[in-house]
Amino acid sequence: MDIKRALEDSEHYLMQTYGRMPVMLIKGRGIKVWGSDGTEYLDFVGGVATNVLGHCYPKVVVALQKQAQRLIHVSNWYHIEPQLKLAKLLVQNSFADKVFFCNSGTEAVEGAIKLARKYATGLKGGKCTGIITALNSFHGRTMGALSATGQEKLRKGFEPALPGFIHVPFGDAKAIEEAITPDTCAVLLEPIQGESGVRIPPPGYLREVRRICSDAGVLLILDEIQTGMGRTGKLFAYEHTGITPDIMTLAKGLGAGMPIGAMLATDKVASAFSPGDHGSTFGGNPLATAAGVATMESLLEGGFILDQCRRMGAHLLKRMEEIAKKHSDITVETRGSGLLVGLELNRECAPVISACLERGLLVNCAAGKVIRLMPPLIVQEEDIDKAMDILDEALSRLN
Ligand SMILES: *Cc1c(COP(=O)(O)O)cnc(C)c1O
């Protein structure tokens, strides 16, 4: 199918929920993807922080092929071997004792909201259902996760939101302390706000929030859907802070591109769920969890990929800072942790995204004015240098 036909069919047959680029990607290998007309692109979007191992990583491809030939789907009424393997890998490499599997980030957040409420109301009574989240946060699109999301524009037209959510400024621990009441069951935060433009909180923020939550007997839920699976140079971003949450949500990179989500918790909290309380037909499905096992094993193997992420993240940030300085008339700030990097402009970045696309580079625009880069963790220095040359040129064209 050529791109002209794709544009027509897209308009004809699909609900218009995305502002798509005029490109149809049909093949990928490592850091590269190819369009239907044969054009090659460097992929610094990575399926929105999802293709942590790049495209068609051999170990994941083989795991999927083998599992697809053996068993694609069975109900959770039976034990599923790759699901058990993935749960064990996650528990052995995180704060958590128990895992619940679902199919996406928003579902992981739904699960976290339900578990927090079940736990807290069981402990403190039926009114203890309040959840504090941050302004400009992003937690997903279903009604619960959308109600948690601190962006009014995303809720517009879909109200009423679920009751019980309060939004406070991100990075301000005191605001959380002041918002907590006896009816607060949890605080839900992203370690770094990805969707709202790679917003990094001040140092010590999460430690302070952890102390406040522990003192008040309130659960701390970390949404690591974007920051998890090695993105910041550690398997999970909370590892940089010296604290642990009570509940954590994962998705995006967990299956290196296969749809899978997970909600992890300590035993104490997870024990609030009994059989029948929560579930999912596809959650933890053999095919998706086989991809998850291959992904986890690859990320853990000798720590090489996480090490690569840290080194390449530092290089990318350095190059971005140089570019920001060179174009200081239009740039505001460079921010990043590992391979989640943002360059804030003082204007809309859509023209830059298009100029990069024309030159063979896929980058994303977050929150209107932030160029966000989230390449696969296997990215090489020469890929970064090439991408930065393209970005540099694209920014020059703005003036
Ligand atoms: C992407 C994202 C979600 C939503 O995940 P979906 O799989 O799109 O439902 C939730 N929280 C954060 C932090 C995310 O980055």
Could you characterize the architecture of this molecule?
The chain is an alpha/beta fold. It folds into 2 domains: 3-56 and 303-396, Aspartate Aminotransferase, domain 1; 58-300, Aspartate Aminotransferase, domain 2 (3-Layer(aba) Sandwich). The chain has helices spanning 3-13, 46-49, 58-70, 81-92, 105-124, 143-148, 152-155, 173-179, 205-216, 267-270, 286-300, 304-326, 350-358, 381-396; strands spanning 25-29, 32-35, 40-43, 98-102, 130-134, 165-168, 184-189, 219-223, 247-250, 261-265, 331-337, 340-345, 361-362, 364-366, 370-373. The strands form 3 sheets. It has a 7-stranded mixed beta sheet with strand order 4-10-9-8-7-5-6, sandwiched between helices. The longest helix has 23 residues, at 304-326. It binds pyridoxal-5'-phosphate. Pyridoxal-5'-phosphate is lined by residues 104-106, 109, 138-140, 190, 194-195, 223, 225-226, 251-252.
Task: Characterize this entry briefly.
The protein is of the alpha/beta class. The chain contains 14 helices and 15 strands. The structure holds pyridoxal-5'-phosphate.
The distinct ligands, each listed once, are:
pyridoxal-5'-phosphate
Number of domains: 2
Give me the CATH architecture of the largest domain, please.
3-Layer(aba) Sandwich
Full CATH superfamily name of the largest domain: Type I PLP-dependent aspartate aminotransferase-like (Major domain)
State the total count of DSSP E strands. 15
β-strand percent reads 15-25%
Order of helices and strands: HEEEHHHEHEHHEHEHEEEHHHEEHEEEH
What is the gyration radius calculated from CA atoms? 21 Å
Count of helical stretches = 14
Mean model confidence by pLDDT? 97
CATH class of the largest domain: Alpha Beta
Q: What oligomeric state do these chains adopt?
A: single chain
CATH topology of the largest domain: Aspartate Aminotransferase, domain 2
pLDDT < 50 stretches = none
Helix content: 25-40%
Using the alpha-carbon principal axes, give the shape: globular
Category by helix and strand content = alpha/beta
